[in-house]
Structures are given as C-alpha cells and as structure tokens.
Design a protein that fits this description.
binds S-adenosyl-L-homocysteine, two-stranded parallel ribbon, 10-stranded mixed beta sheet, disordered C terminus, 29% helix, alpha/beta, 358 residues
C-alpha cells in the first residue's frame, strides 16, 4: 500500500522529471541517475536507504517526497505455475497482475487501470465498469512487488501490458511507466520484451506512432469484419477495424519488428474458414504475427470457445498463407488468471490453491 500520499511520490516521475526535480535542490544530473537505480534496480522502500546521497539531501528530499510501495494481499498459484497477485491500492481499489512462466521466459502481465471502460463482451474486467487510471507508481510497483517474491536465480524476462484496463486510455502514465521499464538506469528491460496491447484507440495510436520510447505493439483484432468486431468490442463502432488496420499499416516499425495481432477465437462468431482467409487478406503488407487465443469461458460470458479441430484448422490456414500464427495456451485459468478473467476481486472458492506465494 502506498504511504504519505500528500508528498511527491518519486515513482511518478519520468527520468527527465526526476532530473528537473533534483535540479530544484541544486543537485547535479547524476544524482537523479543514482536515485533511479535505488528505486528500480535495488528496489529500496525509503529515501534514507539511498546511502550515496548525503544525509542532508536525503532529509531534504524526504520532507517533500516519498516512495510508495505495494504489497500483495493474496497470491494464488495454478498447477501450470502461473501466479496471480491481488493488490490493494491506497484508496481501497484492487488490481491484479499475473506472472506466467514459460520455458525460458517469465512474463509479468500488468494492469494499467482499475476496471475498464471498453466493455468487450468476452472480457470479465469490463463487467465491473471503469474506476480509475493507475498512477505511474502503481503500474511500476506491480513489477517491484512481484520481483520481491522471486528467488535470486529467477528474474522477470518480459512485461506485457495486457492485464486490467486499456493502456492507451491511460496514455501518459502508461508511457511514462514504459519509459522507466526500458531505461538503462531503471528496470533495463529490452524494448523487445515490453509489449503494450490495445483494443486500437485511434487518436492514441496516432500519438504513439510519434513517440521515441521503444516497445512492442500488440493489437486486439478479434474479428475480420466490422459487424462481428462491433458485436464483440463495442469500441469498434467508434474506431472501426478498417481504420485500426490503416493505422497499423502506417505505424513506424524498426527493421524486423512486427505487430502482434491478438485474435480471441469465439465459436460461431469469428472462427470460420472465411474469417481465416479474410484475416490473411486484411494483414497483407503489415509485418505481423498472430496470437490466436481460444476464448477463456466464464460464467456470464455469452460465448463459447471453438472445438479444438476448428482452432487447428484456423491456424493452418493462416500459416499456409505465410503468417506466423501461434495458438496461445490458456494459463492459470483455474485461478481466473487467464486473459479476460482479471477482476481485482477475491474469489471465495480457491481452497485448492496456494494462498501464499510458493
Ligand atoms: N485492453 C487491452 C489489454 C487488455 S486485454 C487490449 O484490448 O488489448 C488483453 C487480451 O486479452 C486482449 O487481446 C483481449 O482480446 C484478450 N481477452 C480478453 N478477454 C478474453 C477471454 N475471455 N478469453 C481470451 N482472451 C481474452
């Protein structure tokens, strides 16, 4: 939980804002670099621990600034090793993060908002409506807090902004958080290992195309025609598929970089052979790879996932057409940690699963 909210939380500042803040004390730039390292590499929880700053400066800093922290209320572990962390924020709101082990990777899925306003019909996060944006510190503290639970031999290799919320609807804070994730004096993640997933907010995609901060882009496509996409994702009425793809086509990519398109397979809605063929056509000319996500079913979600044969066939058509298409295995479904299942709620029936990190 955060502390001393009236004070300036150092974790809400971008590297340049921190530099400016430090300069207001008459301090040199390298002091801000030292602070970044304390905050994000060593993960200190108090300013007083920053022992390469003078005692006087630490005292001055502490008078007007603080460092927030976040501690998990609960950690659940699924049989496949996936862990779900439930966090309570200072105002009592709750969010979740999911840690997903997979061969050589350890991926952390972060939330960027409390709830979500987009109302995708297949996603539970939307069910409770939208509460508020997360602060930069609340996004970053998910990484720091989860990292604390790991042993020295393991580290988070990838970060995906695919948890609760629409990252581009919380544009400024999300981008500041990403800047710190890839900053050499902060988290130092390779930009290839940080992925932002969006339902495709057009003005923000446009703005994003001009950003200098590097990371990977994923688009939740989920259908191949306007009508089915609007049925699944009401935001499509405002930002239609055609325009989203046009924005992707114009999106500046580095050499060999590709956009990931997520495609939740929903029985009878978007899983036909025609859909697969249309998808091939739609993505022509866009360096892309496809993540097929068989729908994670849940009570209250009025859809089903397609039978296995249909999923395989869909994938084969894409691959025959020359696209890289991966079927994403559902992870952590029995603890409601899979895509579209995060609600920030404690569930009553989880006796079978570890309630503490294990
Ligand atoms: N708002 C962002 C990020 C959160 S959703 C976005 O839309 O991209 C992360 C991914 O989970 C999206 O691709 C979404 O389509 C997928 N998803 C949501 N609910 C799902 C469900 N019930 N089953 C499978 N995937 C789901």
């Amino acid at each position: 939980m955060s502390t001393s909210s009236q004070k300036n939380d150092l974790k809400n500042l971008s590297p340049s804002e921190l530099e400016e803040f430090i300069a207001s004390f008459g301090k040199e730039r390298y002091r801000s670099i030292q602070i970044l390292r304390w905050l994000y590499q060593k993960g200190v929880q108090t300013i007083d621990e920053m022992t390469n700053l003078s005692k006087k400066f630490r005292e001055e800093l502490s008078r007007i600034s603080s460092i927030s922290t976040l501690h998990p209320l609960k950690v659940e572990k699924a049989k496949d090793g996936t862990k779900k962390f439930l966090f309570q924020l200072e105002d009592g709101n709750r969010i979740e993060s999911v840690l997903i082990p997979d061969k050589k990777r350890l991926t952390l899925c972060l939330s960027t908002q409390v709830g979500c306003a987009l109302g995708c019909q297949f996603c539970l996060t939307a069910r409770n409506g939208f509460k508020r944006d997360l602060a930069v510190s609340e996004i970053l503290n998910q990484i720091l807090s989860v990292r604390e639970t790991l042993t020295d031999q393991t580290s988070i290799t990838n970060v995906v902004l695919m948890g609760m919320g629409e990252p581009l609807a919380n544009y400024r804070n999300t981008l500041k958080a990403i800047e710190l994730m890839v900053h050499p004096d902060a988290f130092k993640f390779s930009s290839r290992r940080v992925t932002l997933s969006t339902a495709g907010l057009l003005p923000e995609l446009e703005r994003l195309s001009k950003e200098k901060i590097p990371f990977r882009l994923a688009i939740s496509l989920n259908a191949t025609d306007e009508e089915s996409r609007s049925r699944l994702m009401p935001i499509n009425r405002r930002y239609p598929l055609k325009k989203v793809l046009e924005a992707c086509r114009n999106f500046p990519l580095r050499p060999r970089e590709r956009i990931t398109f997520e495609y939740v397979l929903v029985e009878g809605v978007n899983d036909s052979l025609q859909d697969a063929k249309r998808l091939l056509k739609l993505l022509k000319g866009i360096p892309s790879k496809i993540n097929l996500i068989p729908l994670n079913e849940a009570p209250g979600i009025p859809f089903e996932k397609p039978p296995e044969e249909k999923i395989v066939l869909f994938q084969e058509i894409l691959m025959q057409g020359g696209l890289t298409a991966i079927v994403r295995k559902s992870k952590g479904a029995e603890i409601s940690a899979a895509c579209g299942q995060l609600q920030g709620k404690q569930r009553a029936s989880n006796i079978d699963f570890l309630q503490q990190q294990g």
